[in-house]
Backbone:
């Protein structure tokens, strides 16, 4: 009986991550597609699988194309200036814009992984986001963002430069390692 349970759990270790991932992806796509189909095509009577997601994909690609062209920069600047001047909208818009830019924009911020000593012998993996904190009266400190495991959040620490050790690893590998709570194996550099 013990051997059967052992085989059962080994089988579960193989099957669970695959099916859980597929389940989440399929349900997310189905949910998004249903919402987008009803939003865009309900009045036309169209209901093709994937049509809503494909439509959003085309809209985003088109917007990206338009806003990277020189003729549309003034329009984008006008919209952005309106958002930045509106009190509550400014907080939400600028925070989300900066976070998006940090991951995928031209000003990528999470590209310098470091090890931070928080107390004697206790370390966290993080990413330098600001080199000079003199404007915060913290000369010799750096801003280090330390993401949480299994979550899309984290903490910002102001750390003395001598407590920071740059890591010789790819930033995406470092992020995967942290988010997986250290379970993901990192290839040797």
Residues:
């Amino acid at each position: 009986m013990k051997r059967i349970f052992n085989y059962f759990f080994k089988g579960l270790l193989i099957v669970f991550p695959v099916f859980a991932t597929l389940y989440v992806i399929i349900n997310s796509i189905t949910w998004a597609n249903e919402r987008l189909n009803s939003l865009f095509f309900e009045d036309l009577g169209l209901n093709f699988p994937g049509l809503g997601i494909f439509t959003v994909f085309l809209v985003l690609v088109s917007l990206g194309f338009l806003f990277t062209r020189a003729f549309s920069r003034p329009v984008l600047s006008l919209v952005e200036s309106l958002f930045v001047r509106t009190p509550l909208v400014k907080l939400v818009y600028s925070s989300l814009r900066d976070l998006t830019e940090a991951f995928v924009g031209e000003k990528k911020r999470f590209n310098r992984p470091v090890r931070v000593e928080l107390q004697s012998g206790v370390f966290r993996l993080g990413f330098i986001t600001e080199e000079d904190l003199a404007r915060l009266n913290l000369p010799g400190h750096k801003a280090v963002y330390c993401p949480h495991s299994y979550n899309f959040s984290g903490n910002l620490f102001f750390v003395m430069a001598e407590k920071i050790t740059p890591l010789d690893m790819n930033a995406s590998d470092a992020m995967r390692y942290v988010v997986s709570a250290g379970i993901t194996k990192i290839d040797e550099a």
